[in-house]
Amino acid sequence: MAAVFLVTLYEYSPLFYIAVVFTCFIVTTGLVLGWFGWDVPVILRNSEETQFNTRVFKKQMRQVKNPFGLEITNPSSASITTGITLTTDCLEDSLLTCYWGCSVQKFYEALQKHFYCFRISTPQALEDALYSEYLYQEQYFIKKDSKEEIYCQLPRDTKIEDFGSVPRSRYPLVALLTLADEDDREIYDIISMVSVIHIPDKTYKLSCRILYQYLLLAQGQFHDLKQLFMSANSNSTPSSNSSPGEKSTDQSLLEKAGLSESEVEPPEENSKDCVVCQNGTVNWVLLPCRHTCLCDGCVRYFQQCPMCRQFVQESFALCSQKEQEKDKRKAL
């Protein structure tokens, strides 16, 4: 009976047809725009709108003192045949142990052993984890706050000129920094630092640089030390004097090794002003791009990094408000 009534109403009243179409249009529009609070498939939404509505999580950071510092002195002159000069800067007496031709597979197995089995707090612990899968080892004693320059070189009788083509089974050099005094290991959370260093040779001529640095903690964790990218001054000039041809060669070698140029780009003179307001002090690191370019006042307004336009998944502050207030008082 009801069906007969609806059919009769449809035949004799075109307004009914118009009302049904209008109602369907309103319901569909409400579903797409989320008026009813129901979840809508992402395919019906703009991708930028979906990302913009995503909440940016703020990481809770804990300040940890790193007792180790290592950098390459004059990397342009380093090679497998001539050796390499390393500059250390340690807060305590330390040991620098260099492993030439370290096995890549055994190295990452050693990092996993630090997490699951035993702590790599001494050179002997790393040697046990590597199963002596390296070609040559040398060790130096580093005095605290000395900033010593250590010259490392393979012995000539090894007759090693290269470590083969990419991908390689051995790293040219792995440098381990550990605390010399056992009592100091109870003071610091970071008990050792491992640096993977590329050194150019006869086959692979990519310029000398630190590829990776890992901080090993007493609790068993290890963290990959990453560089932060700060906004460069407009009047600053790159510190590198290499020619465009050399840069293009390095770029092609980096692509073969699976490394991006941004990961190993030499640092430039950096600005401490926010790139947005040009007034506040830069204090926030955006992840995953690692650009450090926003102040406390501007960070809340950005879902995308103003430098590279990548969507921000997480962020953390370099200094707390209390530390900033202390710095201002010292300046006054």
From TrEMBL:
Query: Where is this protein chiefly located?
Result: endoplasmic reticulum
Renumbered to this chain, the Low complexity biased-composition regions fall at: 233-243
InterPro entries cross-referenced by the UniProt entry: CGRF1 (IPR042496), Znf_RING (IPR001841), Znf_RING/FYVE/PHD (IPR013083)
- Report the residue ranges that make up the RING-type domain in this protein: 274-309
Instruction: Give the signal peptide range.
Output: none
Superkingdom field? Eukaryota
Which positions, given as ranges, span the membrane?
15-38
Annotated GO biological process: negative regulation of cell growth; regulation of cell cycle
Query: Under which name does UniProt file this protein?
Result: Cell growth regulator with RING finger domain protein 1
According to its UniProt entry, this protein's organism is Panthera leo (Lion)
